[in-house]
Amino acid sequence: MQRKIFISYSHKDENHKEDLEDHLATLKRQGVIQIWHDRKILAGDDWKGKIDHHLNDAEIIVFLISPSFLASEYCFDVEVRRAMERHAEGAAKIIPIIVRPCLWQESEFSEFQVVPRDGQAITLWSDKDSAWLDAISGLKKYIDEFFPITSSTSSLLSKAEVIVSAEQERWLSDTEIILTHRKVDKVKLNDIYVLPDIEFERELKEKDIDILESSVLYKTAGRYLLLGDEQQGKTSFLKKSFIELASKSYLPLYVDATKVTKIDIDKLIKRGVAEQYNGLSFDEFISSQSKILLLDNLDQIGLNEKYRNIFLNKLADTFDWTIATCRTAFGYIRTETPALAGYKAADLLGFGNYKREEIVLKWISLGMEESIDEAILYSKCDELKKQLDIVIKRNIVPPKPIYILMLMQMFEAYAQQNLELTSYGHCYQQLIYQCFEKANISGRDYEKYLNILTEISWAIFLQGNGLNQKQIDDFFDDYGRKYLSVNKTEVLGKLKAHSVLSDKSRKIHFKYPYIYYFFVGKKFAEGYPESEEIKDKVQLLLDNLHREDFANILIFITHHTKDSWVLTKIKEVLSSLFDGQQCATLTKEQLSFMDDFMRKIPELVLEQREIQKERDDRNKSLDIMERGSLEEKHEHDESLDTYSNINRSFKSMEIAGQIIRNRHATMTRDTLYELASSGASTGLRFLDYFIKISDASKSEIINFIVNILSEYPNLTNREVQTHAESAYLHLTYSVINGVVGKIASSIGSKEAYEIYEELAKQENTPAYTLINQAVELQFKRMLDIDSIQKTMDKLRGNPVCLRILKEMVIQHIYMFPVAYKEKQQLSEMLGISVRGQHLMDQNKLGKG
Questions:
Q1: Spacing of C-alpha 664 from chain mean position
Q2: CA nearest to 404, candidates 562, 603, 175, 249
Q3: Which segments constitute the TIR domain (predicted)?
Q4: C-alpha to C-alpha distances, 323 to 120, 242, 754, nearest whole angstrom
Q5: Percent of the chain with pLDDT over 90
Q6: In angstroms, rounded to a whole number, what is the distance separating the alpha carbons of residues 666 and 655?
Q7: Is 159 a residue whose pLDDT tops 60?
Q8: pLDDT at 100
Q9: pLDDT at 41
């Protein structure tokens, strides 16, 4: 459904109108919008009639606001007045774009949301393209979210007797899984629903990504096929679509294709209308221009291939707008159904960092949305999200909404029962048991299936890939000789049908990584004491920790055993990495080569930032990075010792930290200290290596940057050299800052915080002081002024470390609420300007 845009402007702003059209060209080319303005009037046309016609026909009315526009009698008195009437009726949306500075705040436009952000005029931006990009982003958001109220879409639901039926209302609010929450008796779908993202299929290069929020499917008319795995949230999305469309006076009709066994469309629609609406007849529904079909589970329709195609063609004759769902696998064979050729296919994506935070915030605030303290909300959010991140960990557990909700319930239940988890092993085990329940595996057979899967995982590990048909036959033959024989067909049938195993490329694999890692880790943990073969394979894991799968297997071994051999092996690996280096101390002397650079870079300023926006931006950035890393092949030459050692260092630190975080209550103080010390010293030995090799290679690095910059003819040789040296030092500083933060996030723990305090006290170097402070901010999530003061005193005279400390503090303030008084104290203590913060805090209070 194209959105018609009317542009109203003063002819003195012709250049701005042209810039706007240039930046809207992509949306126009995609068929999202249709633009009209008075330059499209031809000679001899009734210009006033044309303007009136297009103004009354437009859904989006854009005003280019400037002193000239405000002074124009026709623009202001005629076009503005009519536009505001249509805006008040809900028939159109007014979007003012401030192009030149003027007193628009004193005009009628002050009541509207203006673009660019903060109403800063286009001409005041240092980069005009960035200004237009910001304005267009805001404009597109309004286009996506606005539904015009017209006679064709409101004629039926505006009648009092046409309402959604009570039974349909109950179904729409049903989460379809049992959710218990400490603050509400019954959790409804809309209470915790978060719209997922989708990725449209495109016949372009692999790196061209087209990811959008799924709401586009129910905001823009078309025929869509939404693909997703089982329990991905397809039906929940159709429920959300039904609610949103009905609220905008459309007439959505939900159809479950699993119940379709005949191609009698009229009978199907009559039954659906009767069940889902009150006061709406079949004839009224069919004649409406507002009807929309929501077709669920298309891949499971009870029709054969021939009649499925006939059925879809009949639906296409009846509905112009259809959203259909199916399982991902069906998407690969949908070309066998010609009637689907006109459908635009999109994949339903899992929840990344951004979406996970949104659902966590909803869950925490449920039942107390209006009263929960913002600082408590964000602190609890980060704590719960960190637990989710540990379990989900790079899609080891599929980040489906249902899994996230189940995990949050588990964390809450375990906390209430005060259970000591072994590295979240109970969470993975519970998810596997739920797969067993869905497969109707009897409780008395759990042990049998657990053992079969443990042995299959070991066979796959030894093979290095999935098992082909002969290998799976041999496996069950061998299994029957070692244990009691089992029915291979029945076992494989249940496990493949319920997302435990999958048959991919004619080989048996585990459906999800967490199931494979769980069982192969179980085999390692149980067999290590007696099996020499398993001991050899443990060493293989340790020697290749730079491999993602091997590092994860080792983590899952810690889920299954508390035996000391695991800790011993981890500490051996940690001590062996960069063992020829000293731990970086980050003293003023070690970093003296950066003194001049630190004096030249600008002082930090605590800018005016909105906390939730900062958190959203951070999460979106993390999603982009993770999406990129998941798409990489990671096929690196294992002979690159430095590369593998760096990866092994970080992986080993993460494993050490995970053990600390989840076994802190049962490990002795000395053991915790040794593990934290081993992890931190490994990271600092790498940092010492980096600083030394960076310093030794300084000339080569600068020359490399010089060669790149020399391509810019407007730079003098001296400017090129200065920029190159600055870039080199920026890189060095960023790595030092990043490694300190990585060490803290890897080995840190809220519960074991006193261990890091002791470590900083014993080692007494700037590096350990910063690590300790970073752990406090990252895991305790509180800004202790006294603690910051002590850290400041220890780092006095060390410009590099002081800069890192200031960035830590500013980042914390951007992510968590901090009182204005505390910001003033920090300003005086650290020399950070907080201009504009008082006004921002006042505004926040006013919104509350």
A1: 30
A2: 175
A3: 1-140
A4: 40, 11, 55
A5: 50
A6: 17
A7: no
A8: 93
A9: 64
Q: Report residue 246 CA to chain centroid gap.
A: 28
Strand partners, 97: 64, 115
Q: 156-170, 330-344, 442-456 — which one is most confidently predicted on average?
A: 442-456
- Phi then psi dihedrals of residue 464, to 5 deg: 85, 0
Round the CA-based radius of gyration of the chain to a whole number and report it: 31
State the Cα–Cα distance between residues 122 and 132, nearest whole angstrom. Answer: 7
3-state secondary structure of 591: coil
Q: Is the peptide bond before 398 cis (omega within 30 degrees of 0)?
A: no
Distance CA 687, CA 603 (A): 25
| H-helix or E-strand spanning residue 348 | strand 344-348
Please tell me what DSSP assigns to residue 349: P
3 state SS for 98-123? ECCCCCHHHCHHHHCCCECHHHCCHH
CA distance 14 to 12: 6
Which tokens hold the place of 785? 């002024």
Amino acid 188 reads K
Q: Distances in Å between the alpha carbon of 510 and those of 218, 507, 537, 763?
A: 35, 10, 20, 46
- DSSP category for residue 37: -
pTM of the model: 0.76
Residue 767, number of CB atoms within 10 A of its CB: 26
Q: Which amino acid is at 290?
A: S
Q: What is the DSSP string of 468-485?
A: -HHHHHHHHHHHHHHS--
Q: Which residues of 302-316 are buried (b: 16+ CB within 10 A; e: fewer)?
A: ebeeeebbebbebbb
Residue 558 tokens, joined: 């810690």
Residue with the bigger pLDDT between 107 and 463: it is 463
pLDDT tens, position by position, 519-558 = 999 999 999 999 999 999 999 999 888 888 999 999 899 8
pLDDT in tens, 124-136: 998 888 899 999 9
Lowest mean pLDDT of 272-281, 454-463, 698-707, name the range.
Answer: 698-707
pLDDT tens column, 364-421: 998 888 888 888 999 999 989 988 988 898 789 999 999 999 999 888 776 655 444 4
Identify the residue with better confidence: 15 or 606: 15
Q: How far is residue 10's CA from residue 23's CA, in Å, rounded to a whole number?
A: 19
**Positive or negative, the Cα torsion across 410, 415, 417, 420?**
positive
Q: How far apart are CA 61 and CA 93, in angstroms?
A: 6
Per-residue tokens: 393: 């960990």
- 303-312: Cβ within 8 A, 24+ apart: 303/260, 303/261, 303/263, 305/336, 305/337, 307/263, 308/337, 308/339, 309/337, 309/338, 309/339, 310/263, 310/339, 311/260, 311/263, 311/265, 311/339, 312/337, 312/339, 312/340
